[in-house]
Design brief:
- The chain is α+β, with helices and mostly antiparallel strands.
- Helix content is 31%, strand content 28%.
- A hairpin with a 5-residue loop joins strand 8 and strand 9.
- Helix 2 packs antiparallel against helix 3, helix 2 runs parallel beside helix 5 and helix 5 crosses helix 7.
């Protein structure tokens, strides 16, 4: 026992010897690592241009375009070993870390170069996006039509490169506005128009690469945009006699967001109830005066909202994010008003139920959202796929 303790003490007393540094071997490995990095990066650049060729051959309308070039880049990573062999690179002592580094350098070099060369100013195969509507599609005489919406492009569209034709007449660019991708042109009701008339419009946007997109549509001026198809004559004073339970029906010739009316120029009363194709209301709502001859004016709001791209739903956003999201909604929402050209007349009965209920709540326009994953999520998923494929390949190679 004492002998073993003595031997242990003697071993502990021996001085620690620093391993001999093999400078030649170290430099050899460093040169090899630099060469492998250079070859992996160069291969990534070459593959980026190869994939670019396939990208150009495929149509921009191909939904699998990005996925196909990504698969091509990942599958062709197996040729990295062949390239090392061709340039006589000694990878006999490569560890898993070495291989992972080489494949990662190849993939991310490919990704960066490919993204650069498939986008402007090097390459542009995206037509301008023209989301234009006429609001409303049917307007009363005396009103106006807004031809409005969003025109976007990855290289931008100049106002001078937007052509608008209404009813066969080319409209000067001085007559419409185009700022921050928002387009608007107001077409007023022609003074001499007396019959229902439908007009066509065509808008063409051309980007800096000469690519074009065209949108066509129509709109109508008509006295039937808003009507009261009641058998009683409501167009001549003093009009029919109505009580709290008397239904008053409206017919609207186009899609509207909100229908409302005023009685004797009072506060707006919303119309939300539907009966078949008719909107329906009653004199029971506040604003209807008892035992009085009343006049009614009818209005309709028309709103058009483009889908909003977002990576979060509104209930997941902070107050600051909600504020920015609302600004984005406002910039993608366009509206106009239909004012019925006819005045309607009623004799309101002296009933206790007249004018006692609150006006119905105005409907809230639905905003369509398009959920998109964040860029970081896309990079993470792609990187995870690459790592899985690399290790699967290395495992197969060891076997």
């Amino acid at each position: 026992m004492a002998k073993r303790r003595k031997e242990k003490d003697e071993q502990e007393d021996k001085p620690f010897k620093i391993p001999k540094f093999d400078e030649k071997e170290f430099l050899k490995k460093e040169r090899r690592n630099i060469k492998s990095t250079f070859l992996a990066g160069l291969f990534g650049i070459v593959m980026a241009f190869v994939c670019f060729g396939f990208w150009v051959l495929m149509s921009s309308e191909n939904d699998f375009r990005w996925g196909l070039v990504l698969i091509l880049a990942i599958v062709d990573a197996i040729f990295l070993r062949k390239i090392y062999d061709y340039f006589k690179l000694d990878y006999s002592d490569f560890t898993r870390k070495n291989w992972f580094t080489s494949y990662a350098i190849y993939f991310f070099t490919w990704l960066i170069i490919f993204i650069v060369i498939v986008n402007p100013p090097i390459y542009d195969d995206e037509d301008p996006q023209v989301n234009i509507v006429a609001i409303p599609e049917m307007q009363e005489f005396g009103g106006n039509i807004k031809i409005t919406g969003i025109i976007t492009d990855n290289t931008g569209v100049e106002k001078s490169n937007i052509d608008l034709i209404v009813d066969g007449v080319s409209i000067s660019s001085d007559s419409f506005s185009y700022e921050n991708n928002a387009f608007e042109y107001i077409y007023a009701h022609p003074a001499n128009l007396s019959n229902e008339t439908t007009y066509t419009y065509q808008i063409t946007a051309t980007d800096s690469s000469g690519r074009q997109s065209t949108k066509e549509g129509f709109f109508t001026f008509s006295q039937a945009a808003i009507t009261i198809p009641d058998p009683l004559d409501v167009n001549i004073p003093p009009g029919p006699r109505v009580g709290s339970a008397t239904s008053i029906k409206f017919k609207v010739g186009t899609n509207v967001t909100r229908l409302y009316y005023t009685v004797n120029d009072g506060d707006p009363i919303n119309v939300t109830d539907m009966e078949g194709e008719f909107y329906i209301t009653y004199p029971k709502y506040e604003g209807w005066p008892k035992n009085t001859n009343a006049t009614m004016k009818v209005y309709a709001e028309t709103k058009y909202s483009l889908p909003i791209a977002t990576d979060k739903l509104p209930d997941q956003m902070t107050d600051e994010e909600l504020e920015k999201f609302q600004i984005k909604i406002d910039s993608h929402t366009f509206n106009n008003t239909i004012t019925d050209s006819q005045t309607y007349y009623f004799q309101v009965a002296d009933e206790t139920g007249v004018g006692i209920e609150d006006s119905p709540e105005a409907p809230i326009p639905k905003i369509e959202t398009v959920m998109i994953p964040g860029f970081e999520t896309i990079v993470f998923l792609v990187s995870l796929l690459v790592v899985i494929l690399i290790f699967k390949y290395r495992k197969k190679d060891r076997r």
